[in-house]
Amino acid sequence: MRELTCVVCPIGCRLAAKGKSDKLTVTGNRCPRGQAYAAEEIRAPKRVLTATCALGPAGSEGLAGACSDQDEAIRSRLRRKGMCEPRRLPVKSSRACPKERLNEMLTDLYAVRVKPPVKLGDIILADWKGTGIDILAARTYT
Amino acid sequence: MKELRYDAVVIGAGAAGMAAALEIEAAGFSCAIVEREDQLGGILMQCVHNGFGLHEFEEELTGPEFAERFADKVATSRIAIYLGTTVVSISVQNGTSGQIAAGRGSYKELVCVSPDYGVLRLSCRAVVLAMGCRERNRGNVRIPGARPAGIFTAGLAQRLVNIEGYIPGKEVVVIGSGDIGLIMARRMSWIGCKVKAVVEIMPYPSGLTRNIVQCLHDFGIPLHLSCRTTNIFGRDRVEGIEVTPMKNGALMPEKAFRIDCDTVLLSVGLVPENELSKEAGVELNATTNGPIVDSTLMTNVDGVFACGNVLHVHDLVDWVAEESRLAGRRAAEWLKGERPAVQLRVKAGSNVRYANPGRLDPKRDNKIYLRSLVVKNDALVELKADNRLVRQIKKGHVQPSEMITLSVGPREMEGLGPDSVLELSIV
C-alpha cells in the first residue's frame, strides 16, 4: 500500500493505493481524478518543468520566428531600457516530463544561452533527447 | 515640470493595474498607467512557475505568460504607459483643472518621478490603486539573533534567481511555509542548492497542500511544524539557525536544535502596500491592511478605487484580474456620474476573517471574496440578511490560505432596506 496526496486540485485528498499498477484500488479520493492521479503517480510520475535559461546579450543570433520590426513599436511600449535588464529567460516544458529525468533536462537547459529577440512560445530545445518534449520560451524579450 | 491630464490614472502595471486600465479605456475614457519597474507585468514576471490562469484562461500558464496576455492588450490600446516612474504623492485638489472635472468640484493630482520625465504631474478625476503588496520581513516577525549576510525574503530571492540570474546561497532554510516559500524551496533545489528544511510556526502548513507535495515531498525537504526560529548564528554570513519546537503555544527550549545553513529565506506573509493611499486620506481595514471599499470598490475618498493585492492579499491571480476588471468598470461608471442608490453593509460573522467588499449593491450581482479563520471539511458558507438565512453554499473544504468566492444577486437582497446588514459565516 502507498499513501499519496492528490495534487490535482487544492483540496489535496489523502489517497491510499493498494495492489499492482494494473489492478490498482484507490481509496480516499473525493472524485475520479484522484484515481487517475494515483495510477499515473505510481506507474510513471511526471511534472511540468519550469525554469530559466541565460538571456542575452543581444546579438545577431536571435531565434527564428522572433519579433519583426513591426512589432518593435508595440514592444517598446512594454519595456523601458533601464538600469536592470533581465538576465534570465523563463522557459517551460511543452508537457509533463518523467520525474526522474527532470535533473538531466535542467542540466541541458542551464547550458543554453538565448540571445534576444525571443518571442513567447519560441522553441528553445526541440524534441529533447527524442522524448517529444520541447522547451519553450515563456516570455517575449526584445 | 511636465503636466498631463487623464480621466483616470492607474497606479501599478501588474495583473490588477492592467486589467483595470483596459476596462476604463474600453469604456471610452482616457487612461494612464504609472509603473515603477521598467516593464509591465509586476510580480508575475518573477513567478516563472506554472499554475496561473486556470480560471481566467482555462489553461495552466507561467507568470510571465499570464502577464503577457494582458500586456499585449495594453500595448496595442490607447492607454498611456509611464514605465520606470514612481508616484510619490496623491492629493485631492479642490476646484477644476482645465477641461478635467467638468461638473465636479475636485480632481486628483499625482506627483511622479522618473529618469525619463523628471518630475511629472498627472491630473485626473479617478485614481485606481493597484500597487500590490510587499513581503513581511525579519523585523515584522521578530526573529532574534545575529544580523549576518544571507537573510532574504523569499520574493527577493525569487527575483535574484529568476530575473537577475544570481544564486543567493548554497544551503538554505526557509522560514514560513507560505506558497512563495514552498515555490522557492523547489526553485532553490532545481538550481542546485540544498534546501535543509522549512520551519513553520503554526501546527499546519500555510501553503496549499499541492505545493507541499510538489515542492517539498518531491525533494525530500523536511517540514518542521509548530516550530519557532529562536536564533540566527553567524558573524559575516549566516552559519545556521536554532529551531525550538512548541507545545500548546509554549516554547520547549530543551528540544531546541540547530540547522546549519548559509542562507535563510523568509516567507512570513504579505502586506498590502498602502503608504500612498494613506497619504491621500484613504481609510484602511485593520484586518486586510487594505482600503475599506464599497460595492464599486471605491474607497472613502470619492473617485479613488482599489483592486488586487493592494486591497487584500489574494492567493490566485485569476481573482485579482476578475476583481480589477470590476474596479475598472465601476471607475468608468463613476466617471459617467453613475452611482448605486443604496448599498448594504457586509459583516464578517463566525469563522470568517474578512469579507470584501464591505458593501453590496442590492440592484446587481456582487462578487464577494472571503477568508476563513478555520480549516474544515464539508463546511457551509451562510449568508444572513438581518439574521434571516438567505443562502447556504456547500464547500467541500475550507482553509485560511484559500480564498472563498461567492456571488450575491438582487434575489438574495430583495426587500432589504438601506439599514439592513448582510452577515457571512462559516459553519
Notes on the structure:
The radius of gyration of chain A is 20 Å and the shape is elongated. Chain A has 3 helices and 10 strands. By secondary structure, chain A is of the alpha+beta class. In chain A, β1 (2-5) and β2 form a beta hairpin. Chain A has helices at residues 32-43, 69-78, 102-110; strands at 2-5, 14-18, 25-27, 46-47, 50-55, 88-93, 97-98, 113-114, 123-125, 135-137. The longest helix of chain A is centred in the N-terminal third of the chain and has 12 residues, at 32-43. Chain B is α/β, with parallel strands linked by helices and 427 residues long. Helix content of chain B is 20%, strand content 36%. Chain B is built from 8 helices and 28 strands. In chain B, β15 (240-247) and β16 form a beta hairpin. The chains are: A alpha+beta (142), B alpha/beta (427). The interface between A and B is large, with 37 and 41 residues.
Which consecutive residue ranges of chain B, at least 5 long each, have pLDDT under 50?
Answer: none
What is the largest interface, and how many residues per chain? A-B, 37 and 41 residues
Radius of gyration of chain A: 20 Å
Sheet with the most strands of chain A? 5 strands, mixed
Provide mean pLDDT of chain A, rounded. 84
The helix content of chain A, as a percent range, equals 10-25%
Class based on secondary structure composition and strand pairing of chain B: alpha/beta
